[in-house]
Amino acid sequence: MSLETEEDEISSGLNTKGLNESFHEFPENYARKDSLHSSENPKVVDLTAKSLNEISYEVPKAEDNEESDKMTENLSKTDLPEKRYEYEFSAEINAATVPQRTLLIFRNQNLKYLHLYNNEIKTLHSNIGNLINLEVLLVEKNKLTSLPPEISLLHKLTVLNVSHNQLSCLPKELSKLVNMKELFLNHNNIDEFPFALKSLETLELAENKLKILPDTMVDMKSLKVLSIDSNQILIFPKVVCYLPNLVKFSICENLIQSLPKDIKELKKLQEFSISNNKLIFLPVQLFQLTKLKELRAHDNKLEFLSDKVENLQELRFLNLAKNLFKNITENLCNCTMLKHLILHDNQLTQLPANIHKLKHLKEFSVSRNQLDSLDEQISHFKDLSIIELSGNALTYIPVELKNCMWITKADLSNNKLSQFPHALCALFDLKYLNLSGNCISEIVPGISYIKNLEYLHLNKNKLTSLSACLCSLTKLIYLDVSENEINSIPATVSEMKALQVLLLHCNKFDLFPEEVCSLKSLQILNLANNQIKSIPLKISNLEVIKELNASNNQFVSFPSEICHLSSLEKLTVCQMNGLKLTKVPEEISKLICLRELDISHNALKEIPDGIGELEYLVHLIANNNDISQLPKSITSLGNLQQLDLSGKKYCLISLPAGLRHLHLLTDINFDGNTLFEPLCEVCKGKQLHPILCYLESADERDEKILQKILEVIADNVPYENFEFFCQKLKLHHVDIKTVKLEEKIITALNSWRSENQVLTSAEMIDKLIRILVMTGMHYLTNKVKALKLYSQSVKF
């Protein structure tokens, strides 16, 4: 029975959504379908609910496998994890019943597929050896430090994935798995692959600590796919050259300086990746691999490409980006099957004269070279879909480009174009166009013919107005015209009904362009670095806007009209180069969806209490202001993760003790302030735990100080001042029946304290000192102040 037939049968009885999504969703996890065709009655167990930390329970011996199978088949559908995984028979395991369900795993000797990935498993119990019919074992993304020797008992195992664990070595018993076809060991700490598995067809060892490969690998004659990316290999392992069936080989991100001549022996190699190494040349023997279809050698130190490259007649994909090429051999153009040619970030001054031979090119990238012209031969690229020419010195785009009518992406940014290229107007399928960083001063009317355009970058040019012809691009989603000299928007902008992102920063606006308020789909608007003095109430028409940047403008006061944008998630009003704002209105509380607020580089003396109502706020950036104290309401921001109050004005003197209740707050910065509570030294490390510990201790300390101050006041208020003192406490209606003066004062103070429970201990102390000053009891006032200062100066 074929896998496809099996899947069709399943769909009638189970939700068949997940195995292909889960089993194949990671590149390193793919296990070809033909390796799963081995049974007409496969069995699979999924434990992917991110709930397991260990598979190491004591398991009774299975006396009745039939009964075990029945128990497993009858698992409730309510136990399904978030994703379901398919086959004819499926046992899903829920976090609430993990231990009980796990017992069943090792009793089911008919089990063929066991999925345990993305949990917290630290060990695999030796009883895994009971699963004698297991064919596929997926344990990637756990916390395994070793594999049990009993894994050698899984004689039918064909696929083992233990990638993304903490393995440092492999058990020698693994070599006994003579039916193994695919082995995935990526992202571990393995420094040695000690044996050869002769049956293996796929071996992935990327992101480990390998320095060499063993000579015994020469016996792995069946190996077709090998990946040893991101290791510590200095010398190309010659043993690889004698793997006769190798089809795909990747050895990227190592320290290799040269390739051996023996590489010519890899007669069946179709894909070869050796990017991010230290190669200075490619040997001619490499170009004897006539089956090669894909060659990736980017990010090396290559200067020369052999004429023998023309031997690679099957070549479809060539990436030589980020090297030191000054020219490319004409012979490359004889590789006429080439579809992807990537040469960006080199030192090319010209392209091969006969490049027109590459008629099947779909992607052509020569960005960031030294080209000053583009030959009209480019018109021969009839199948071209992506052209990237940015970062050169082009002054002209040949009109023949219009013949490449299937182009969907064109990047011509950062050149020396003074006119909008007319050829682009004939590219009706164009969806992405980048012309930023040129010298274009006018948009041609023909741009309206590019009806499918969705992303348009025109920033860093010399535009003086936003052309009305742009407004006919009704499918445009993203428009960047920042860093020009634009001062107005045409009324026809309302026709751009799909526009979601509009970037107008660094232009010449002195009035808010009200025309943008008609853009009903607008989600991101940037008006920073203009000369805007106010924002109209009409901005409230932007009902789905999520991000607004109004920084560095000339607002006389905070534009409260912004507070009507209830959908806003990110607001930036940083005035580093604009008029400084002195106050944020209480209406800020209306921004109920706000997640990030940047009000840095202003002259704010306080943050409004309304900030506490922004329950979704994650980032609060208020550095370089004059803020001396935070509102108590800030302690209500349960989702706050970042708080930046740094600056050079030494204003902030204390933090609210309730800050310790913000359990998600991890990114803090109070640098440049003269913090007294907590001490500046405590905050320098920008570690929240010591700050919170200090605040908690300070809270306890303030409570003790308050109690002591109350006792001092009770002992020192003269009889003749008592009634006036009670008046200032606003306790003249309190009935105090006791006769003794000290008891009267204590009763009065306790009543006052009860009425002021909303205040912290520190705030009560400050209020008491103000009351004492008003009563004229200067001796007692000084005594209380001295007690406060002395107590707070003690470090703890």
Automatic annotation (TrEMBL):
<dbReference type="InterPro" id="IPR011029">
    <property type="entry name" value="DEATH-like_dom_sf"/>
</dbReference>
<feature type="domain" description="Disease resistance R13L4/SHOC-2-like LRR">
    <location>
        <begin position="581"/>
        <end position="671"/>
    </location>
</feature>
<protein>
    <recommendedName>
        <fullName>Leucine-rich repeat and death domain-containing protein 1</fullName>
    </recommendedName>
</protein>
<dbReference type="Pfam" id="PF00560">
    <property type="entry name" value="LRR_1"/>
</dbReference>
<dbReference type="InterPro" id="IPR050216">
    <property type="entry name" value="LRR_domain-containing"/>
</dbReference>
<dbReference type="Pfam" id="PF13855">
    <property type="entry name" value="LRR_8"/>
</dbReference>
<feature type="domain" description="LRRD1 death">
    <location>
        <begin position="706"/>
        <end position="788"/>
    </location>
</feature>
<keyword id="KW-0677">Repeat</keyword>
<feature type="domain" description="Disease resistance R13L4/SHOC-2-like LRR">
    <location>
        <begin position="422"/>
        <end position="506"/>
    </location>
</feature>
<dbReference type="InterPro" id="IPR003591">
    <property type="entry name" value="Leu-rich_rpt_typical-subtyp"/>
</dbReference>
<dbReference type="InterPro" id="IPR055414">
    <property type="entry name" value="LRR_R13L4/SHOC2-like"/>
</dbReference>
<feature type="compositionally biased region" description="Acidic residues">
    <location>
        <begin position="1"/>
        <end position="10"/>
    </location>
</feature>
<keyword id="KW-0433">Leucine-rich repeat</keyword>
<dbReference type="Pfam" id="PF23598">
    <property type="entry name" value="LRR_14"/>
</dbReference>
<dbReference type="InterPro" id="IPR032675">
    <property type="entry name" value="LRR_dom_sf"/>
</dbReference>
<dbReference type="Pfam" id="PF24978">
    <property type="entry name" value="Death_Lrrd1"/>
</dbReference>
<dbReference type="InterPro" id="IPR056869">
    <property type="entry name" value="DD_LRRD1"/>
</dbReference>
<feature type="region of interest" description="Disordered">
    <location>
        <begin position="1"/>
        <end position="21"/>
    </location>
</feature>
<dbReference type="GO" id="GO:0005737">
    <property type="term" value="C:cytoplasm"/>
</dbReference>
<dbReference type="InterPro" id="IPR001611">
    <property type="entry name" value="Leu-rich_rpt"/>
</dbReference>
